[in-house]
Design brief:
The chain is mainly α. The chain has nine helices and two strands, in the order αααββαααααα. The protein is 71% helix and 3% strand. The protein has a two-stranded antiparallel ribbon with strand order 1-2.
Length: 247
């Protein structure tokens, strides 16, 4: 018969001596996780502020001010700013410190040129490959967005529609390229849906895209999507540089 092992007072003493070290490691791990969550919170908050135009190109980003405003210490702010700088959303300049990155006229044109190509390809592939369920989803998103009056809500609905089109395209490489491009979109600042009349015109353009996808017409779907991005580019140039690109 196997002899049962008993716990002696010496064993309990050794265990109690080890416990504080393990507890300290646990607390350190919890603190690290908490710090990561705070850094992620600051990163997401600043990114959203840039996307919504609350932080404009050229605005200075001071650690102390951000920490006080968001109710965190300077450490997660510093970590979040490093991530934003790595993303290209924040730029370090001599004499000014960190500022929100501003796109030049040429960079805006290049960004929208690529958006036009990718959006056109996504609509073309969606017309060829979208399932009946995906087409119904596009129609539902379109119907929901018709009565929107808030520029922010209209912009979110527009993003959701085009993300669904990209998913319906059934091309993982295209989807990946569009995700990479989306990292630069916050630099554009305030949505073009804040321009008078854009909510209505944008909805009509999207309705045309969905119509051609549902009819399985790749050529027409691609051209409608390209037209939608060209219209957005013209509005962006007018908003940012005070001029409208000719169609």
């Amino acid at each position: 018969m196997q002899k049962r092992k008993t716990t002696t007072s010496a064993d309990r003493t050794r265990h109690s001596r080890r416990s504080p070290a393990r507890k300290q490691q646990g607390r350190a791990s919890a603190a690290s996780n908490s710090g990561s969550l705070r850094s992620e919170f600051v990163y997401a908050a600043l990114r959203d502020e840039i996307r919504e135009g609350l932080l404009s190109p050229g605005d200075r980003l001071r650690e102390v001010e951000i920490a006080e405003r968001l109710g965190v210490s300077r450490t997660p702010v510093r970590e979040a700013l490093k991530r934003l700088e790595s993303d290209g959303l924040v730029t370090f300049g001599q004499g000014r410190g960190l500022t929100v990155t501003g796109l030049t006229h040429q960079q805006v044109l290049e960004l929208y040129a690529l958006r036009e190509v990718l959006a056109g390809a996504a609509a073309r592939f969606a017309a060829q490959h979208a399932s009946a369920l995906q087409i119904d989803t596009l129609k539902q998103i379109l119907a929901h967005s018709k009565g929107l009056t808030s520029p922010e809500e209209a912009a979110r609905a527009n993003r959701k529609l085009h993300e669904t089109i990209a998913a319906a395209a059934g091309n993982s490489y295209l989807h990946r390229a569009m995700n990479v491009l989306s990292d630069a979109l916050p630099l554009l600042g305030k949505t073009t849906y804040s321009t008078p009349g854009r909510i209505e015109s944008g909805w009509k353009e999207n309705a045309e895209i969905v119509h051609h996808i549902a009819r399985r017409d790749p050529d027409a779907a691609e051209q409608a999507a390209r037209k939608h991005i060209r219209s957005a580019c013209a509005l962006r140039l007018a908003m940012t540089f005070g001029q409208r690109e000719q169609d």
